[in-house]
TrEMBL record:
Orc1-like AAA ATPase domain sequence ranges: 82-238
Example GO molecular function: DNA replication origin binding
Superkingdom, taxonomy of origin: Eukaryota
Its biological purpose: Component of the origin recognition complex (ORC) that binds origins of replication.
Protein name: Origin recognition complex subunit 4
All copies of domain Origin recognition complex subunit 4 C-terminal, residue ranges: 278-467
Kinase listed as a keyword: no
GO cellular component, as recorded: nuclear origin of replication recognition complex
Amino acid sequence: MTFVPRLLCPVCHCFLWGPRRRQVKGTAFLVYTMTTKRSSDNNASCSKKVRFDIPLIPIDAETASVRHELLSRLSEITPGRLHGLQQQYDQLYQLLHQTTTTGESNSCLLIGNRGTGKSMLVRSVLDDLAKLQDDPNFCVVRLNGMTATTDRLALNEIARQLATQQRNQEGSAPDRSFSSFSESFEYILSLLKAGNKKTLPVIFILDEFDLFALHPKQTLLYNLLDTVQSAQSPLAVIGLSCRLDALELLEKRVKSRFSHRQIYLFPPATFGQFVDAAKDNLRVFTEGHAENSYRARFNKSVETLFEESTITSLLRRIFDLSKDLRMFYKICFEPVSLLSRDQPFLTTISFHQANLAQRADSKSEMLKGVSLLELVLIISMKKLMEKDIDAFNFQMVYDEYKEFMSRTQVRGLGFGMKLYKKPVALKAFENLQSFELVCPTDIVAKCPKEYRMTKLMLEESQVVETVLKYKDCPSIVYKWGTGAA
């Protein structure tokens, strides 16, 4: 079994045809080819054949199974393992179990910072409830306040999910058309209220609950909670929010129909708990496997990995910043994706490289490709900022650059460097403006472009970092940019 990657064309960002396998000197390669015609619009496709040769990653069935399990957990396709949330799990499980078994309607609000496990807790409870029977005896409708920005959009999403689940259960769904929003809303509510205790329970998951409270008149929340209070058909409304004052955003009529049941979730209190949670989510299931199997050896390698000082310092930084495990999951993606037959276990080097890539500054990365003249102009702007000059024009920058070159040539240190003429430097300055590294402070149409006031969109530390990482940087520019001269 081999890992077959999919590639995007670097020009039009569409998938390439292929892959076609070829072998060179015993090494297997994948060849992607695509030929398309260039269109007249801005979204032009490739005009010539695009070809990529990349080596196949040899991977066996066991390694592929472990990698798939970890990637599904890291990407939150499958719920991870809960840590320190047993009490919250029991409360939510008991609440939804009463809805799905005895037909009792309930409402609840989960409150906690981002990354504390609210969505994972809900998915874990729903998965455990679905395992009680071969066929799940409840229906789940998921809404997000960031996408369902109006009641109309939320209603369309409710109707779509209910119709899809009804079609999956019954094989077909009756088609109905409505002439207005109120008519369709009334029909959906009539369906929710027309049942009895034996009707199929419906569980509403309202992610970003506080955004639903910003809708005009809070019509959706009022009708859902009013249906819960009527207790005609089994219905549960579970809200998820990171705002502690989410309940205070509700109108009086909506708040009176809410059960005021709130479950609070907190991040790990100590660094040890945070490390245990991160370590446990990198372990794989070993049930039904021998003690010396690949999965058992993989879990032992994870224990050894977390004893390394590199991993400890990485986790300490995340814990001090936000205590959000998802930041650690982002770093784990690349090391887990590299698991193969030749590299069956996670390595410290891959975590270190992935951490550096995650922490890389986008502007500093962009500046790696600038020319030496553009770098010198950026340093000139930095020197002006050190003189408390926040806004400057090209003429001021060029004067600073010219003064630096004069001092360098007087000392006899400018070997290999020359003073570029003003039109050439102006072209480089305009190139920095096209990258939005230099932006105008005001718009004056009749002012010559070399006298238009601008400002540098970089911090001084970013400029120094760029100079330090610049390849083949002259020593005199290095000293000038870092302040050593």
